[in-house]
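Recap quiz, item 2
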Amino acid sequence: MTPRPVATDAFPTATSRAQAETEAVLLKHIAAPDIQQDPVLDKTSHMQFLVRNLVQGFPSRYISQDASQPWLLFWTIQSFSSLQVALDPANKQRVIDKVMKWQHPDGGFGGGPGQAAHLLPTYASVCTLAVVGRSGTGGGWDQIDRAAIYKFFMSLKQNDGSFLVAHHSEVDVRGIYCLLVVATLLDILTPELVEGTAEFIASCQTYEGGFASASHPSYSLGGELLPHGPRPPLGEAHGGYTFCALASWVLLQPYLASIANDSRPKPAINIDSLLRWLVHMQGIDIELGGFKGRTNKLVDGCYSWWCGGAFSLLEALGVGGLQNAVSEEVPIDSGTPEGVWDDVDEGLLNRHALQEYVLSAGQHPAGGLRDKPPKNADAYHTHYCLSGLSSAQHHVFPSKLRRSQVEEAWEATDSHNDAMRKRCFSEILSWTEEEGGSHIIGGQNNRVNATHPVTNLTMTHTEQFVSYFYKQKVPARILRKKPTTSPASAPGPGTKDAPAATTTS
Amino acid sequence: MFDDDELLFSERPEWSDVTPLEQYENLNPLAPIFYTDEYKDATNYLRAIVKSGEKTKRVLELTENIIKQNPAHYSAWQYRYETFITLLFPSSPPKPSKALATNPMVIAELALMDELAVRFLKTYQVWHHRRLLVALTRQPRRELGFIKKSLEADAKNYHTWSYRQWTLAFFGGAGGGGGVAVESSDENDIDFEVGEDLWAGELDFVDAMLAQDIRNNSAWHHRFFVVWGCGVREGELDRERISKRELIFVKQHISFAPNNPSAWNYLRGILRHTSTPFSSVAAFAEPYTSSKESISRDNIVDLDNPRPGEGAELPCSEALEFMADVHEAKTTEEGVNSAVEIWKNLATEHDTMRKKYWEHRIRSAHRSLNTATNAA
């Protein structure tokens, strides 16, 4: 049976025509029901595509991404990680050497040698170093000028709590996400750096529930910021910005927890409308369950991560997967699994369909992944399709148990910012892959590595990197098996209007 | 690259005093990009110029050349802006003023931006540079016309729409004229074009965009921005009248093409923004939840509750979802039961892709009800 098209109500417009064209293309990629063959992730040809880019280089049309050289490299290197491939030491060194050419003397990394520092390439450079770098001479990690990065970050700060992405450049939440990941990884996040940023993020949420690129503050005639004036979002709710805003919100929780007891009014986001918007971004059967980036737009493989990956982040705010997270609170030797595991809940998106989209429509026959057929593969889509596939395969959640283990192992320092650093450290490392929580369409051969929902690095790379910069030991993970008995469903605490996750250490 | 006769910078005598700077010296990098000769040449000179700190007229030529080859080269834009400002204000700090709009340098720069924006519509930098210029010249009106034209080429372009919203907010946010803050300006010096009339055409503009494509979510978002997002402007003080106007507008648009999530989201948005219960439009939404055959077609025209149009494909899942929310909000057992009935319906028949979400709604509605019952 052919899946039904998106309803057009006999009222065709440009949007419905573009939609119909896409449906016609995607229809050809729906596996016929008589074919009992599972879709295969063609790892070999994707590796060939990636290696070709890495070794031979990128064709001339990539000149348009000459100011995104760190991204080209990060997408490639991190795609290797997803595909469970590591570089040999010699090539790792070549990557490190290249990345270090991008560091700007005044702090941060640029899009290429001699280019101005910019928040986005700073994230891509630092994260690439997290994968391939090491401590010591020439290893990259010790050559990152953290003090200069901090100064660079502060120089971009605006009085509405936002940041320019570079000097004389625009404000948008992609930059804030990149800044917060880097600041968290490198242990340079201070209250001063992020004061007012959560308010800015909250103001980017639109009436639809998703987030926009930025918002516009209100000023008095004298030029002062009006804290209670309107801060309208600039642009509509969008998948990429929504991921960045939500991840930023999660990364700001340690700071928000640290000011929880002062009398200032606290910013808030509407989690119900965000969840509703996110689930509605998933296309219907005829769209193979891929995600779109805005209402009434077309599905695109990259939103497998920006939207699909956002569901894990929601768990940090108490939405979805809660039963599993809470179950970890029960000591493993309590011997009373009843009421602990709730198998009903395996996420609020259709993980199965999302995998189908990436596998059936996202793979280019000649290697690499893509937006949708008949488009070409590129480095960006290869990485975000694989990350999205990973988030749909694995259940990675913020474990309270893991957080408390990490907290207990924390060695106090005399830093005046010790409490917040400890929170940053333990929250970023609390993300845990649920044992037995993977659902892999097409069998184990299609498995890609689990991805950290906030950093989009692997869990291991995140852990090693963070541990190095905080100079803290990370306790070994205690592996636990899911009970095989099928207990009664567990009534979890209310998720509706759940407050943002805050630590209680 | 765009003009075959154009000489490389390395071939131009007027650049012979500059020693070009290679990108990767003494390094054979992984993942290289295969540059064209023209691109390599120009960016080698840019690196040299940035290093020497030169900010002269020929830098404008160089950066224009690079930008035309790669409009996303943000460093070229950044350096161009710094050079432009240095040339424009050789002896004083930069100061916005309306008089700048007649300065030949500014006119030339804006003309170039007109050309580049159309060519590189999807580039952040094109729009941001424009923003920097307009913040100096304080002439927003021209921008609205320009934006309108460029939306003809791409009606959902994110940058274009957010630039329009920035223009409106910056030059006349809350109440008009409140949106301006420039470090260097003191109050007496601010002379710019504001006024309510900058906003006067916005609703007509949105109407026209939605008439072209009722599903253009960017236009719906713009409508929300104009009517609700920026505070209350003169002529819009009677919020009850505005609410009523907007409700009629969105209901009518739903009736033309009911399966349009943009319109339903707008309806939800204004109800929540005005703290109006969803139940107040239940009578409107209900007919959209029935199958087509069951709708009685009479000749009564009810402006408050327009009926689904002839071609409507019903039931419409947005309407079902809306009615479930109406029922759930009653916080009674019957209410929740009715809502659950609809969610089950969505999960198993009308919107199966979101099965997990509808199940989540069912669980949380039961939970809320239990909590409420236990508390009572």
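Chain A touches chain B through 99 residues (CB under 8 Å).
Residues 176-239+248-479+494-505 of chain A form a domain with the Glycosyltransferase fold (CATH 1.50.10.20).
End of item.
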